Predict the structure.
Amino acid sequence: MANVTLRNVRKTYPGGFEAIKGVNVDVGDGQFCVLVGPSGCGKSTLLRMVAGLETITGGEIDIGGKIVNQVEPADRDIAMVFQNYALYPHMSVYNNMAYGLRNRGMAEAEITTRVEEAARVLELAPMLERKPRQLSGGQRQRVAMGRAIVRQPKVFLFDEPLSNLDAKLRIAMRVEIRKLQRRLNVTSIYVTHDQLEAMTLADILVVMNGGQVEQIGNPLDIYQRPATTFVASFIGAPPMNLMPLRSDELKSQIAGVDGAGIVGIRPEDFAISNETVAGGVALGLTIEAIEHVGAETFVYGTRQREEQGVAANPGDLPPGEVIVRVPGISRPVIGERIRAVAPRDKLHLFTADGRTRLGQ
Amino acid sequence: MVEQEGFRRYVAHVILWIGIAIVAFPVYIAIVASTQDNALIANGQMSLLPGGHFFEVYYQTIFIGTSGSTREPVGNMMLNSMIMALMIAVGKIAISIISAYAIVYFRFPFRMPIFWIIFITLMLPVEVRIYPTYKIVADLHMLDSYAGLALPLIASATATLLFRQFFMTVPDELLEASRIDGAGPLRFFWDTLLPLSRTNMAALFVILFILGWNQYLWPLLITTRDDMQTIQIGIRKMITTTDALTEWPVVMATAVLAMLPPVFVVVAMQKLFVRGLVETEK
Amino acid sequence: MQKQSIFQSKLLPYLLVAPQLAVVLIFFYWPALQAVIQSFLLQDAFGLSTSFVWFENYVELFKDPAYFGSIVRTFVFSFAIAVSSLSFALLLAVMADKPLRGGMLYRTLLIWPYAVAPPVVGVLWIFMLHPSLGVLSRYLRNMGIDWNPLLNGDQAAALIILAAAWKQISYNFLFFLAGLQAIPRSVFEAAAIDGARPMRRFWTVTFPLLSPTIFFLLVVNIVYAFFDTFGIIDTMTRGGPGKSTETLVYKVYSDGLIGGNLGSSAAQSVILMGIVIVLTAVQFRFVERKVTY
């Protein structure tokens, strides 16, 4: 049971590369914190710094009220699940889980109790004597989880634990991890590049980019009010449509906010309509591609001309593409011309550099 | 492919059997000679079929030796060879694996110079430094001792390189998981790295045992006492005497006995042998 | 070269490298240094005094026709052993690479001579081809050849080459087979579809693709012929008759041990070191190329 607090944490490699440029995060006791971002954003480095596997160049890491900057990984009372599981290939499932406990001098009877309990929870009981190579990917993943659980640590650390599983198993394990964490109520930090995984798991979502935190908060808040264009395009699939506002006249007409340079609209916030919406956006689109997902359909269109505020930007690649979500029952046709409108309150406005959100 | 059916296949089989015959013939002759009467052989009238003296020749060879005055039972020579080969194989593996571990898993001053010092020994085989090495072993009072036989041959850049290469392929996460599980450097080495290296160690052991057993020049230099002879030296001394006095059945029986352990290792542990051979040459 | 994740410890790594370092320094570097020093010294006939003579030992060596003869002989032996053993092993490997029944059995029956020690090889062959009692000598004499390798230097040399090549067949076979099996089947199939007959396929596809292996084995065989033939020579001919089978390594041994000429023997050792360094460098150049290949 512990809070994890990162205060102005920095990491600079000997070559001078700044991997982490001052990060502040506060994870409350029992909370599930997810670090998400594209590869190379520093999220794994940050997690490994919490684990004690990477040294800290600046700032403080606090676990349960104790600064752990100089503490060995074994003494931080954390457990970690690795991306490739890092199971000891020569040890049985049982011994993989028991190893860390034995190293701490725990009595064998207590070890057996804990391992068997973990095996029961993770449905590994029948395979305790097997070696890792005799297990399926999903089972190995469970053993890695089991190794963390038996330790009953203050903090769980997960480094992309599901990325080696196939899509279906990934979803199943995602739900299981969440349930398990709720039940054990152990503070957890979880690294992923998959925004869907991040959204579904997190109590606190930390979106990172280029060694910095772009936004921290509740996943839904972040989804509904992204702080930067990076967050706007990273969280949500398909991503938010981001369109530059070119002339000042258009800016004031549509935005009514000083300094707005970019408008963002999520695909699901469009409606196909011929009406004009006051203060909103209407786009004339030619349908170029259609993705039927089942319950919904995504339409990829190009803007035909400037209409009610938003200019087609010739610099965009592909030029002026807009994604619109329509109900699964509608049957759009390629080449068809449609008019997509979004009301004023669904618009996200950002400064031209994309770093600042404007308005509500 | 179609053309490999039929005729060409028979040709291949025939060529391979001819090859096997050429490879096996000298050994066949040795086995045959070791079962025959010396007088017959000395007259140049050896039969190409096994004779009837198998038990007496091998009994004499193993437990008594030749009929000469300075004879030494071959059984004792085999024991010496075995001790030397095992010391070389085990010693090389032991000191190489720990030095490779230090070089891969630690960062310390003079790490690279030390690596190069070990690496360059590849260019200093025993043949190019025989007399000075002999002198040092003599100064250390290690002539006619097992330590003197094995120690100078025990350092191996090849084995160090092999382990280094293998350690580099062990995922970093395994070390990290161990650290989180509370294992220090020695515990990680003993609990994780050593068990993972088992196959490599076994393959290396097979090769090093054969090389150790077959050592010739070095034991020739530093053993003077008959009871410290290895079998390779013993066999050479048996044919030193004038041709007429050479007891060929005993010599051939000794040759067969000298081949037996390493050949057995190659055939019985073929997979490990091939692996070891290919890995050490990389 | 090194892991990202490592242990922190000041003393432990030194303790771990200490045994190897000790053995290497005491039994490798110190004697090698001694050899170099010794090669600049001259000892008088009674071993009472030594004097520093610069390169005199080397100069004497190169003025000595026996040493020059030994160099030429060693190279001739090396190439003869390498070429004969390699070509026979390649033939066998190409045959064994075909999808034959009993492929593993063939391999087993061909690789075991690797384990036979050089002195034993020498004993086996001298026994078969001994002038008075050898089983094969009878046939040679019946064919009208005056076979006596104990008196005829050329015959002795041929015998050494034969025995040394025989031992090396298994090693070469193994590596050729591995090399052949590393070539994708589809390459041969493509060549067959392109109309290349088996013989032509061998020379235009197999042989070029095998050339890295051939080159590697050539170097290994030369090293083998330089050093590992010592045991064969010592049991078969002791460098004789005359000096007709005295290779460089054998000469170091006999000049030092029998002749007691330590300075000259040391100078020869130093020259041998130079040769090993060149061969090792060549071998490593090759390894690098194999990586890019």
